[in-house]
Amino acid sequence: MEEWVGEIWHKYITRKASTDYHDARIEFSQVAKAVGVVYRALGGEAVKRIEAASPRDYAVRRTFLQKIAGENQQISLAWQDEESLRLPETLAVFSTKELNRDLYIWLAVLAAHHQDKFRHWAIDNQALVLSVLTAYPSLQARYDRLAKAFVESRADISKRPKEEQLMEQSIVQAVVNPGSVNAFPVVDYAPQPVYLWLYPSAKVNPNILPEYNETELDEQQKHLATKGKTNRKKAERVEANDEDKGMMIFRLESMFSWSEFSKLDRGEDDSDEDDDENQRVAEDLDKISLSQQQSQKSARIKIDLDLPSPSEDDIPLGEGIRLPEWDYKQQVLVKEHCLLQPMLPKDSIAKKLPQHLQKTAKNIQAQFEQLQTLRYWLKNQSQGEEIDLNAWLDFYVERQIAPTAERGIYQSFRGGNRDLSCLLLADLSMSTDAYVSNDQRVIDVVKDSMLLFGEALNTVGDNFAMYGFSSVKRHHVRMSLIKNFNEKYSDDIRGRIQALRPGFYTRMGAAIRQATKVLQEQGSTQKLMLILTDGKPNDIDHYEGRYGIEDTHQAIIEAKKLGIKPFCITVDQEAEAYLPYLFGQYSFTMLSNPTQLPVCLPQIYHRLTTQ
């Protein structure tokens, strides 16, 4: 009974204290796609994520009812940093859905136009609004509607201190007439939220964050940090408990609320770790407390122990190859930043094509046999079936300028092998050890795909090579040699494919640069690079997030400048968030069912090479 009454009271007092228009509420998820299109179409950085902003502390003066209800302590505002654009989770500040939807679009326009950091929040926002309205005059009517609704939505502060009244008047004037206010009074409380403006980044002060060394993050911490879609949290730094002090307690978290913090130590036991439970707790917490732990030193040892011993590892070929890497913060290509180690799969022996693939292989081979009869035009011939109009026109123009020796102006229709080279680059990171069905892992699907790919290209006679890659930081990028361009496809190659194992992380930029060098050495007219992957670029030394995306993007640009056509095939269901930026809108494909990759890969190659 008490719980029922308490729930009714909470709903009543919360709704009574709220100033939102609940019937006009718009969720960020409803406008996320439209916001993304507007932001990037107007020049916003393509690599930035566009996400909902977690509520943040906002020291605004609250009404009596808001204090009773506990409302307005945290507010979701619009802000951006180098990694992402964050917009309010919901907007119900105006009386109609149309106005709240327009507000989301307006904030996306502001964010796309805003490049520098704020020096003075209110003055800089006025200048930003003016520059946007000058650049896009058609937005003036929309802004006027939003400004009018903004003024009407402001709470009455006639009983507040004079300084706060002056601050409110200044903000209203700055919104209605951008650029008209150059000075703002100093007040004890923040003004009411100005939803028409961007706010400074909500990043936590780095002085309160633990100073972990980049090499001291263990694999489990990286997994928990990237797992799920948890909103960003506030952080505070606390003193760590001494390991030989404190009190041992049982795990009775259910008796505490998630927001409480008890500085009690407990014994560490790997057997009682529950990643899913920890993830759920992190999502519920408003603030996460961090401390410097001496045990972090052991994480570095753990990572080193994860590497196989030389007797169990793949076979290295040579001392490695130095490769550059793109630093997007400095906008410079750092020379010899990575060490790529070519390797041969360990314990590979000559093997036949597995029995379960033989029927599919025959069907694919029958399709590819049609490409053997492909015919083409041979240019610059002294005689032939037709006149080459382009060659004749060049000859005619040159002859008008100066005496010109005769040359072939005919073209002849010939048959023969296709003039192209293809390099297949497969992601062999540790994520390929995940299961996609009851019987198959991602690595099994990749191996079947490479086997069928080899059978198909061997049938048509195209020049091709196959490599795999993974990495453990920049000094250990592993490039598995499966078949180079000079080797004949045989049982030895089939054996290497079947000996492949999941590796480590995905330093894609270095692998693409090495693949580009290999392809560049081929004399073919067409050069195709096919990339198989199940996730985005990442590694454990600052390569995850935007750094890895930008380096891979730069590597793709370098390959395209050399006449190479990169194309990505992925089974990552979230790939649409980053692959258009990396490869271009029409240079990748995403498979919803990973088990279809072995059949789809030869078909995709067939389509790419017969256009």
TrEMBL record:
What is the protein name stated in its UniProt record? Answer: VWA domain-containing protein
Species, as recorded: Thalassotalea algicola
Q: Which domain of life is it from?
A: Bacteria
Per the record, where are the segments of Low complexity compositional bias?
289-298
Q: Where is the composition biased (Basic residues)?
A: 224-235
Renumbered to this chain, the Acidic residues biased-composition regions fall at 267-277
| One Pfam family cited in the UniProt record for this chain | VWA
Regions of compositional bias (Basic and acidic residues) in chain numbering: 278-287
**Region of interest called Disordered, as start-end residue ranges on this chain:** 219-240, 263-299
Sequence ranges assigned to domain VWFA in this UniProt record: 427-608
